[in-house]
Amino acid sequence: MSDLRITTLDNGLTVATERVPGALSVAAGVWVGVGARDEPAEISGVSHFLEHLLFKGTADRSAQDISRTIDRHGGDINAFTTKEYTAYYTRLPARHLTVATDLLGDVVSSPSLRAEDVDTERQVILEEIAMDDDLPDEVAHRVFGEQLFPHHPLGRDTAGAPETVSSITPEDVRSFFGRRYVGDSMVVSIAGPHDHDTMLEAIASAFGGIARGAAVRGRQAPPPPGTDRFVEDSSEQVQIIIGGRALARGDEAREALDVVNHVLGGGLSSRLFEEIRERRGLVYSVQ
């Protein structure tokens, strides 16, 4: 039985603590309820841009301070951006609970967001987009998303487009951070061998500077899917995607869909793999 407790702090921040007796490490994560679908078209990619910038330094720590603190204590820290949320997480030996919470709280609540860092990281993100352009399977999935959710934020690439990333200003980033990174739009989760009160106290101390407020979502349902689309390039293989919209996240039949997905294409024993690769030898990978 899970030993999980949910607490809401005075600033609206939701904290989920789970005591795991015997664990030798502590893991903590911050889940911010904002992603690529929440961005204005003209600054598409700003959520992902901001995720990069939060590790460039805070009011009290430089980027080197952040990385060296994690390395010195034998842990790791990372982040990722999705269509609907952005996550920051770290894991360290259990004895370094406050190191984990203090560092994560500082990164998320007090980023420096310096103009020179925006310009530097812009080039990194443009290279990241260019790298995906060199991968035919990435291009195919990007085009598929555009056709599945045409003229809608869900159809945009999470990293943004080169033209929008190139035009995002430091003020755009700061404004987006101020409006979206607020208490009522965040969940902090932490698991380790410590008792709940100890973990909650560490989170409350590290994240007390987060302002209260609810980010205005304004999410709209997407229009009907678009039509088939074909892209020609000089690659040696053909990438084929056949798909459509499935069930809502909360649908009771979601688990049944997962089973169907696995039977069809989710492993080495799936019907697609056995027929298309093993029997016919037509492809290297299928899913």
Description:
Helix 1 packs across helix 7 and helix 3 packs parallel to helix 8. 39% of the residues lie in helices and 14% in strands. The protein is globular and about 60 Å long. The chain folds into two domains: 203 residues, Cytochrome Bc1 Complex, Chain A, domain 1; 42 residues, no CATH class. Strand 4 and strand 5 form a beta hairpin. The protein is an alpha+beta fold and 287 residues long. The chain has a six-stranded mixed beta sheet, covered by helices on one side. The two termini are 34 Å apart.
Structural class: alpha+beta
| Outline | globular
Q: Beta-strand level of the residues, as a percent range?
A: 5-15%
Number of helices: 10
How far is the N terminus from the C terminus? 34 Å
Mean pLDDT: 94
Major sheet details? 6 strands, mixed
Write the layout of secondary structure elements.
Blueprint: E1 4-8, E2 14-19, E3 25-32, H1 46-53, H2 63-72, E4 76-81, E5 86-93, H3 97-109, H4 115-133, H5 136-148, H6 162-167, H7 170-180, E6 186-192, H8 196-206, H9 254-265, H10 271-279
Parallel strand pairs: 2-6
Antiparallel strand pairs: 1-2, 3-5, 3-6, 4-5
Helix pairs in contact: 1-7, 3-8
Describe this structure in a few short sentences.
With 287 residues, the protein is an alpha+beta fold. 39% of the residues lie in helices and 14% in strands.
